[in-house]
Amino acid sequence: MEKSFVTRVNQTKLTKKEREIADYILNNLSYTAFLSGIQLAREINVSATLITRFIQKLGYSKFSEFKTDLENLYRKTITPYEVFQKFISNPDKDDILNYSIARDMQNITLMQKMIQRQSFDTAVDIIDKAKTVYLAAMFASEAVTQIFGYHLQRLGKEPVLLSGVGLIKRLEYSDIQTDDILICVSSQRILREVRDAALYASNMGVKTIAITDSPTNPLATVCDHSLLAPVTGSVFDYTQAAPIAMVNALVNTIAVKHQKRLSKEFEEIEKRWNEKNLFCT
């Protein structure tokens, strides 16, 4: 039976510096699990050579083996059950308010570190040029696509929301065209229907974008582009704070590209709202 990263660390005599590396990796697993060797060295502020020696000392034959082990460990430790068990054993569990906010802030900070600017800019251009934007998600991730759809509509786009069980059938019976795009939102244990929706759209020649938490999961690997947003929860389930922050970044960037048009449109909308007396005074 293959030894896990934690077992290897516990059974290997490490130097103080190597122990610090192991602790940093484990304490920041939702981020470190997806870094390259050079990125990991830069993040921990050590040399790439030291990272290589550390990995070899743990018994890994190559970096890809080490990285796969970390990714598997990450997926196991972020399930709702594991998150809840970790919370129960946390000495700060009585301060749920600050604990929950701190976790969301950490996810957003990690997202910012993980963003590949070129991928983000490409996604913005694809969304901006699309005729219709299809959004696929299930369960908690539906909150992300609902917010996304609302903002896209205000930007003058035609969003189509595909959610819940059976979304793949709704996509198959839709009028999706090659000048449309499909954005799929799912993280951790990727939902099969969301993945299949991406595969179907891709086979139709439609560009696909994933908002997910790993560049190597089943959704990211079938989509043309991936935007990474961690979803590690604080008490019992995943949190959508980072994916929603990603959506905000996307729509804000698109809005800036059309400042004059949107400024005029928003002014007209504001006048209609005031005429209809929609808000409390």
TrEMBL record:
PROSITE patterns: HTH_RPIR, SIS
Domain SIS: 123-264
The keyword Acyltransferase is assigned to this record: no
Any Pfam family hit: SIS
Annotated ranges, domain HTH rpiR-type: 1-77
SUPFAM superfamilies: Homeodomain-like (SSF46689), SIS domain (SSF53697)
GO terms, biological process: carbohydrate derivative metabolic process
Coiled-coil annotated spans: none
Nucleus listed as a keyword: no
GO molecular function: carbohydrate derivative binding; DNA binding; DNA-binding transcription factor activity
Swiss-Prot/TrEMBL keywords: DNA-binding, Transcription, Transcription regulation
InterPro entries, per the entry: Homeodomain-like_sf, HTH_RpiR, RpiR-like, RpiR-like_SIS, SIS_dom, SIS_dom_sf, WH-like_DNA-bd_sf
Highest taxon of source: Bacteria
Full protein name: Transcriptional regulator, RpiR family
Protein's organism: Dethiosulfatibacter aminovorans DSM 17477
